Amino acid sequence: MKIEKNLPFSLAEVNAEWLEYALRSNGHIDKGTIKGLAIRQIGEEAGFLGLVAVLTPQYSDDAVSSTGCAPPASLVLKIPSPERSRIFGQTMGVYEREIRFYSELKDRLGINAPVHYYSAVSEVDEPSAIPRRLSNFGRYPMWLMPLVGLIGLVRYGRRSRRYVLLIEDISHLRLGDQQVACSDDDLRKVLRAMAKFQAPFWASEPAREGLPWIGTLYDSAKLLHLWFLGSIRRYRKEMSGQLSARQEQLVDWVHKHGVQLSQELGEQPRTLGHHDLRLDNVAFDDETGEAVLFDWQTLTFCSVGLEIAYFLSSALADDVSEDQVDALLDYYQSELSRHGAEVSRDYLRWSYEVGMLAMLHRIISVLYQGQIELGDGRGPAVMRRWIRIIFQRLETVEYEDIFGRRPRSEEHTSEL
Fold first, then answer.
1. Arithmetic mean of pLDDT, 232-261
2. Can you tell me the mean pLDDT for 70-94?
3. Whole-angstrom Cα distance, residue 137 to residue 223?
4. At a CB cut-off of 8 Å and minimum separation 6, what does 184 contact?
5. Most exposed: 197, 372, 401, 414, by fewest CB within 10 Å?
6. What is the 3-state secondary structure (H, E, C) of the chain?
7. To the nearest whole number, what is the mean pLDDT of the chain?
8. What is the model's pLDDT at position 412?
9. What pairing do the DSSP bridges indicate for beta strands 271-273 and 116-121?
10. Rounded to an integer, what distance in angstroms lies between the CA atom of residue 195 and that of residue 198?
11. What does the alpha-carbon distance between residue 42 and residue 395 come to, in Å, rounded to a whole number?
């Protein structure tokens, strides 16, 4: 990971001179200069933990890269927000984690993701520092977690570190839209991409070697429940009289079992999880027929069930039947097998159901917390639709005894 002090803190500090330096440092400009720069901010209400902008440089006529190609016509810049979400994002390590993905892991996975042009941080801890920090949080009892969390935000989030990531502008591709859902064909493209990068890590310690900067879902279980506890009262007040009896019971159940849900999904045979694989973080390349995945800030080791529940709950239309969901699970299982990971059908279905319960716990928290800035329009609307789809998918799940129904053939724990 590149460490540099002279990095922009905000979009106001991004200019042609800095961009030319960044691109030249990696050979994306060898000859010529950048004479001007247009900056267009995007994604203000998509739930980002930072600022995202499209940069369009104006090059001199002789500008070429070190390989003799034209430099990128446009790029995407990602930097932390100067607002309160920056403190949360830095404490949780999301900016550093995405930079490490692009600089250290992307090529190893061989996955379709935006091209990496440049990344740097102003200061960095040793790689295992953030997972160890989250693990330490989880050792405290729940009654003490609010104070511990506040101390953590002050201690780790107030330091003014700078993070910069420059990646490919993929706006020419067909972008996913979580408010619209997607077709069965597109769903399968994403499941195919998921299986490709997850199969090598399935219950495999050797595959995880050299990745101490990626933690486990188990370590975050109490922290996730703390966010839920801080959100549930507002959720119940807003939804008073609007939930069915079963929906009320589901909310009560995840309230009671929130920590256990995340711990269960963290103890299951683990794989590498994108952990924010929703339709808004997917693009479709109609020429190649493949899905392109982006926004890699929340990588973690977790269960395949949580990953598939996360994606399907964000991407399914309202009228999708359980038979269609079963067909998608079968397809995902076959893709995992094609890449060398054998997962039983009973286990996959059970893990998906546990994952969907965890998604109810998770998205209620996101909608009413104060750390991630959703805006006033599209962001909250996306989250409310997401919760509605989750309730639909849980309509037939027998959740009361779900922990006792874990398939026997999969009753083992994979330790990192």
1. 94
2. 85
3. 7
4. 324, 328
5. 401
6. CCECCCCCCCHHHCCHHHHHHHHHHCCCCCECCEEEEEEEEECCCCCCCEEEEEEEEEECCCCECCCCCCCCCCEEEEEECCCHHHHHHHHHCHHHHHHHHHHHHHHHHCCCCCCEEEEEECCCCCCCHHHHHHHHHCCCCHHHHHHHHHHHHHHHHCCCCCEEEEEECCCCCEECCCCCCCCHHHHHHHHHHHHHHHHHHCCCHHHHCCCCCCCEHHHHHHHHHHHHHCCHHHHHHHCCCCCCHHHHHHHHHHHHHHHHHHHHHHHCCCEEECCCCCHHHEEEECCCCEEEECCCCCCEEECHHHHHHHHHHHHCCCCCCHHHHHHHHHHHHHHHHHCCCCCCHHHHHHHHHHHHHHHHHHHHHHHHCCCCCCCCCHHHHHHHHHHHHHHHHCCCCCCCCHHHHCCHHHCCCCCC
7. 88
8. 37
9. unpaired
10. 5
11. 36
Task: Find which of 69-78, 134-143, 402-411 is predicted with most confidence, using mean pLDDT.
Answer: 69-78
pLDDT single digits (tens) 147-182? 877 776 666 656 678 999 999 999 999 999 999 889
Question: What sign has the CA pseudo-torsion 180, 370, 221, 125?
Answer: positive
Predicted TM-score (pTM) of this structure? 0.90
Instruction: Name the pLDDT band for 84 (thresholds 50, 70, 90).
Output: low
Token duo for residue 38: 């247009």
